[in-house]
Amino acid sequence: GDSVTQMEGPVTLSEEAFLTINCTYTATGYPSLFWYVQYPGEGLQLLLKATKADDKGSNKGFEATYRKETTSFHLEKGSVQVSDSAVYFCALSDRSGGYQKVTFGTGTKLQVIP
Amino acid sequence: GAGVSQSPSNKVTEKGKDVELRCDPISGHTALYWYRQRLGQGLEFLIYFQGNSAPDKSGLPSDRFSAERTGESVSTLTIQRTQQEDSAVYLCASSSLQNTEAFFGQGTRLTVV
Q1: Residue range A6-21: average pLDDT?
Q2: What pLDDT does residue B99 have?
Q3: Among B26, B36, B43, the residue to mutate for chain A (most A Cβ within 10 A)
Q4: Nearest to B77 by CA among B44, B113, B29
Q5: So what's the pLDDT on residue B72?
Q6: With an 8 Å Cβ cutoff, is A87 touching chain B?
Q7: What is the pLDDT of residue A30?
Q8: Could you say which residues of chain B have pLDDT below 70?
Q9: Which residue in A24, A21, A18, A27 sits closest to A5, CA to CA?
Q10: How far apart, in Å, are the Cα atoms of A74 and each of A19, A86, A87?
């Protein structure tokens, strides 16, 4: 079945550092890919998405590129801020077994220190 | 509705009691998901509904956990004979066929004492 693998956290960075959170996936179809963010004490919300190969999703300074050849969708940001401290979830949506289903990774906690 | 609604938002129950958690998905969303998130942990998949059927319930941790969905709308997650390890936030999400993005509710925080 489909699966999403994220790098283990927590990730601790200083403010203005470069961020990469790795995400790889396996899927039987041709999935759409997502990054969700969960700020402390809040629910999950969509951060960005990409629906086809080589698409780049971007939002709030974060970017991720859909790489079909490496089945990856790594999240990057050039200069993180303390307010980016949150848990980040990689996800895919795929039609598998006759159903359209969303599959999530387990999440990566990011802590940005001043 | 405008978003995914979960109730109650908080529930404190005594060990051994049964609890019911409710999820109202976005109107017209055929897919509905339940997840569990323990304190400081990631998402743990519980069950997935497509319409009123559950093609994937592989994440239900024991036979104390069950879920149903009626009218392709509301879903209830029932935990029987609650244990302290059931304490967590239970999240519900829904998605449509046209827009595959999943939308989350705010969750139900369950505390078993």
Answers
A1: 94
A2: 66
A3: B43
A4: B44
A5: 84
A6: yes
A7: 86
A8: 1, 99
A9: A24
A10: 10, 16, 15
